[in-house]
Amino acid sequence: MKRHKTEYKGVYYRIGERLSKKGKEKIFYIVFKKNGKVYEEKVGRQYADEMTAAQANRKRSARIDGKLQSRKEIRAQAKAAKLAEAGKMTLTRIWDEYKANKADSKSLEIDKGRFEQYLKPDFGDKEPHEIVRLDVDRLRIKLLKKYKPQSVKHVLALLKRIVNFGVSRQLCGNLNFKIEAIRVDNQKTDDLNPEQLKKLLEAIDNSTDIQAADMMRLALYTGMRRGEMFKLKWDDIDFQRGFINIKYPKGGVSQKIPLNEQARRVLENHPKTTYKEDDDLKT
C-alpha cells in the first residue's frame, strides 16, 4: 500500500479497508531511530482506534523517550508474565500435589473441604513465601468469630501441613514466620450428677438387651468409645494381667487400659459365643 506523508516527521499512513463497515480508513504508522536501530510500527486505525496524525506523533515521541512500549513488547511482556505465573508454585498447586500423595488418607475429603472453603480464597494464588503473618492472623480472627477453636486449629494445621509437604518435596520455600498455635480447652462439663447416674444404671439393669446393657456398663466403667467397643474381641481381654488391649483407636496407636473390677465383672458375666469368622464379644 502506498505511503502518505503527514505534517509530522516520521508519521505516515496507508489507506486500507475498514474493519467493521464498508469503506476505507487511514492506518497510521510511525518511523523512528533509537540506539542506532530504525523502527517502523503501526500505531492505530482512523476509525477503529480513533487515531489521528497528531496522536500518532505523540506516540512516536513517547516511544523515542522510552515512555511507551510497542505492541510487540507488550505482547512479549504478557507472554512472559503468563509463563511466570504458570511456573509459580502456589498453595493451590502444592495442595494438588499433596492431595495426589495422600489419596488413600481417610481424612482427605475433610481436608479438601477445609482447603476449598477456608484456605483457597485467601491463599490459593500465593506462594508460601508470599503469605505474611498478618494474612494468617486475619484468617484466624475471622474464623474464630464463627467457629470453635478446635475447628480453627484444624484449618491452620492443614495450612502448615501443605506448606511442610511442599518444602519436603522441594516445591517451595517455607513460611517466613511460625503459625501460632490455637489454644483449645477440652475440659468436659457434661458429667452426670449422682441422681442422673443412678437413673441411668437403673435403666441399664432393667434392659432386656444384654448386649446393649453390657456395652453401656463397659463405657461407663472404662471410658471406651463406641467404635473401640465394637472392635473388641475376647483375645483383647487379658483377665490374668488385668488390662484391655484397644486396637486401632481414634488416635491411630494401639494402647492398653486397666481392667478395673467393675469392668471385669461385666465381661466375666457376659455370655460368650465363638463365631467361625471372628471372636467378637457378642451373644
What tags apply to this protein structure?
283 residues, alpha+beta, hpI Integrase, Chain A, 3 domains, rod-shaped
Give the count of structural domains: 3
Mean pLDDT: 83
Distance between the termini: 99 Å
Taking strands numbered 1, 2, ... along the chain, how are they ordered across the largest sheet? 1-2-3-4
Number of strands: 7
Radius of gyration: 37 Å
Q: State the low-pLDDT regions, or none.
A: 275-279
**Global outline:** rod-shaped
Structural class: alpha+beta
Element-level helix/strand string = EEEEHHHHHHHHHEEEH
Number of helices, where a helix is a run of at least 4 consecutive DSSP H or I residues: 10
Strand content: 5-15%
State the helicity in percent bands: 40-55%
Main β sheet profile? 4 strands, antiparallel
Give the secondary structure arrangement, pairings included.
Layout: E1 4-5, E2 11-17, E3 24-34, E4 37-45, H1 53-65, H2 71-87, H3 91-101, H4 108-123, H5 133-144, H6 149-168, H7 194-205, H8 210-222, H9 226-230, E5 237-238, E6 243-246, E7 255-258, H10 261-268
Antiparallel strand pairs: 1-2, 2-3, 3-4, 5-6, 6-7
Helix pairs in contact: 3-4, 3-6, 4-6, 8-10
How would you describe this protein?
- There is one protein chain.
- The chain is an alpha+beta fold and 283 residues long.
- Strand 2 and strand 3 form a beta hairpin.
- 17% of the residues are buried.
- The model is unreliable at 275-279 (pLDDT under 50).
- It has helices spanning 53-65, 71-87, 91-101, 108-123, 133-144, 149-168, 194-205, 210-222, 226-230, 261-268, and strands at 4-5, 11-17, 24-34, 37-45, 237-238, 243-246, 255-258.
- The N and C termini lie far apart (99 Å).
- It is built from ten helices and seven strands.
